[in-house]
Amino acid sequence: MELNEIYADQQEHIKKTLEVLKKDFTTLRSGAVSTAVLDGVKVDYYGTPTPLNQVATVLASDATTIVVTPWEKNILKDIEHSIAAANLGVNPNNDGECIKLFFPPMTTEQRQESAKQAKGMGEKAKIAIRNIRKDANDKIKKLEKDKEITEDESKKAHEQVQKNTDEGVATVDKMVKEKEQELLKI
Questions:
Q1: What's the rounded Cα separation, in Å, for the pair 60 and 82?
Q2: CA separation for the pair 99, 130 (Å, rounded)
Q3: CA angle centred on 7, ends 164 and 25, rounded to 5°
Q4: Which domains does the chain have, with CATH numbers?
Q5: Which of 7, 23, 160, 186 suits 40 as a labelling partner, its CA being 20 to 30 A distant?
Q6: Average pLDDT over residues 146-167
Q7: How far, in Å, are 3, 46, 58, 169, 178 from residue 144 at the CA level?
Q8: Across the beta sheet with 56-62, what order do the strands follow?
Q9: Which long-range contacts link 85-94 to residues 24+ away (Cβ below 8 Å)?
């Protein structure tokens, strides 16, 4: 393995970590309700646990309402039970055609709690990035030990890995800050 491969590998892993963080952020409720709150809901579809969005249309009709319209009317009750079992803090309203979920506006405390969760997710991402740095540094040390690179090359490589790490951590901080502002804005 050569240094450029190590850098590329590190960059790729950091990129994946940032994508995971972005996906984690979608599970946080902000002022407007997001259909992502239903991503974990599985419906018993002919004996198979199936993601809700594969058996129904899931739309946010406004800032506080999600409408779930099944593609087959006979699974409406199953969908209603699955949503109720998911403990989302709202009761599903079944009108025979679709299920409506009415989310109350968020309180300041709920917003602050979501912002705190976003910070925690950011910390996890930073830990992951630091672990990626450690892996890259270990590979560099091995190259130096095996005399495949010089001590100077090793020093430069460690500096490049640190630079990549710092950029990744700065991106996480920026993402967390933006998410906190979005969550706390009323």
A1: 18
A2: 44
A3: 50
A4: 3-27+107-184 (1.10.132.20), 35-102 (3.30.1360.40)
A5: 186
A6: 95
A7: 11, 58, 54, 27, 41
A8: 56-62, 65-70, 99-102, 92-94
A9: 86/38, 86/40, 86/41, 88/37, 88/38, 92/68
